[in-house]
């Protein structure tokens, strides 16, 4: 049951994977959570599993009309916004049309999903204690073409956002995961061989779990993190440094 002084948390992509675990952690802390995604049935299933303090909200965050329509269903005051929605659906091909589809698609799926919502509700963020946490990727620093470039632009945007929100005492930070299993992100691409290959690139010798990224998000949303802003918190088992 939500605490009397529960915070309002919005988690995009909260129906699956990392976002689902983020929502679960906030519910466990007694907060009220809205989970946002495109598939209503997935969100409703997740909300049933997470309990009565979770509200599902279907919205394509890359579509400005959809975002505008969703505004009435979002809390009037938002304490924590977690921009976690994103994906990598790489159309193959080298011709200009395929390249355009890949770059535009990755930008829409990973940057606009965060920017359209944040800009639309920035006036609802609680002065003094509000938090914006955006999930990027190790790919922002270690290649991965259009997907990595899209995630890297979140880093530049986050600095700008942190500078703008800082005067109101609101922080804006990034969590950048390495490879995480148990989500829909890779689908069948993350087979046993690929897991081993990726685990070998880390210092811990393994890939991550959604709850381990969720822990970093919840920390940045906590009172203890109030003096941290404009930062990128890497969560990759040491893969960024490598062996
Ligand atoms: N798994 C990894 O190894 C890994 C590593 C680094 C970074 N990340 C990042 O972590 C975040 C979460 O990914 P995940 O691994 O948990 O994968 P996931 O299970 O596929 O989660 C992505 C979520 O985003 C939602 N979403 C995607 N596009 C959306 C849109 N246009 N509007 C609204 N919701 C949208 C999806 O729901 P719908 O399809 O229903 O919309 C889904 O719930 C992503 O930003 C991803 O890039 C993941």
Question: What are the main properties of this structure?
Answer:
binds NADP nicotinamide-adenine-dinucleotide phosphate, 7 helices, globular, alpha/beta, 243 residues, Rossmann fold, 7 strands, 40% helix
Quick summary:
Strands 3-2-1-4-5-6-7 form a seven-stranded parallel sheet, with helices on both faces. The protein is built from seven helices and seven strands; from the N terminus they run E-H-E-H-E-H-E-H-E-H-E-H-H-E.
Tell me the Rg in angstroms. 17 Å
Query: Total helix count?
Result: 7
Number of extended strands: 7
Mean pLDDT: 96
Shape, please?
A: globular
Query: Biggest sheet: strands, sense, closure?
Result: 7 strands, parallel
Q: Would you list the SSEs in sequence order as H and E? A: EHEHEHEHEHEHHE
Strand content: 5-15%
Small molecules bound in the structure, each named once: NADP nicotinamide-adenine-dinucleotide phosphate
Spatial order of the strands in the main sheet?
3-2-1-4-5-6-7
Q: What is the structural class?
A: alpha/beta
Total separate domains? 1
The CATH class is: Alpha Beta
User: What's the CATH H-level superfamily name?
Assistant: NAD(P)-binding Rossmann-like Domain
CATH topology: Rossmann fold
Low-confidence stretches: none
User: What multimeric state do the chains show?
Assistant: single chain
- Summarize the amount of helix as a percent range: 40-55%
CATH architecture: 3-Layer(aba) Sandwich
* Distance N to C terminus: 45 Å
Describe the structure.
The chain is built from seven helices and seven strands, in the order βαβαβαβαβαβααβ. With 243 residues, it is of the alpha/beta class. It has a single domain (8-235), classed as Rossmann fold, CATH 3.40.50.720. α1 (17-28) crosses α7 (210-220) and α4 packs parallel to α5. The mean pLDDT is 96. Residues 12-13, 15-19, 36-39, 42, 60-62, 84-87, 109, 113, 135, 137, 177, 179-180, 183-185 line the site of NADP nicotinamide-adenine-dinucleotide phosphate (NAP).
């Amino acid at each position: 049951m939500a605490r009397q002084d529960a915070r309002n948390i919005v988690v995009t992509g909260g129906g699956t994977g990392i976002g689902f675990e983020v929502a679960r952690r906030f519910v466990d802390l007694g907060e009220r959570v809205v989970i946002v995604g495109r598939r209503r049935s997935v969100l409703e299933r997740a909300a049933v599993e997470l309990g009565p303090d979770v509200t599902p909200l279907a919205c394509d965050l890359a579509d400005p009309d959809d975002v505008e329509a969703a505004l009435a269903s979002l809390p009037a005051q938002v304490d924590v916004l977690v921009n976690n929605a994103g994906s990598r659906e790489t159309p193959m091909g080298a011709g200009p049309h395929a390249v355009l589809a890949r770059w535009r698609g990755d930008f829409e799926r990973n940057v606009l999903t965060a920017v359209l919502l944040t800009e639309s509700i920035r006036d609802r963020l609680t002065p003094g204690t509000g938090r914006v946490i955006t999930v990027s990727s190790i790919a922002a620093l270690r290649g991965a073409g259009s997907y990595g470039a899209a995630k890297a632009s979140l880093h530049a945007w986050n600095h700008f956002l942190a500078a703008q929100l800082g005067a109101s005492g609101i922080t804006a930070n990034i969590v950048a995961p390495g490879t995480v299993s148990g989500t829909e992100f890779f689908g069948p691409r993350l087979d046993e061989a690929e897991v081993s290959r990726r685990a070998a690139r880390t210092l811990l010798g393994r890939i991550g779990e959604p709850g381990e990224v969720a822990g970093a998000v919840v920390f940045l949303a906590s009172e203890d993190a109030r003096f941290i802003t404009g930062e990128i918190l890497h969560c990759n088992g040491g893969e960024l440094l490598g062996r």
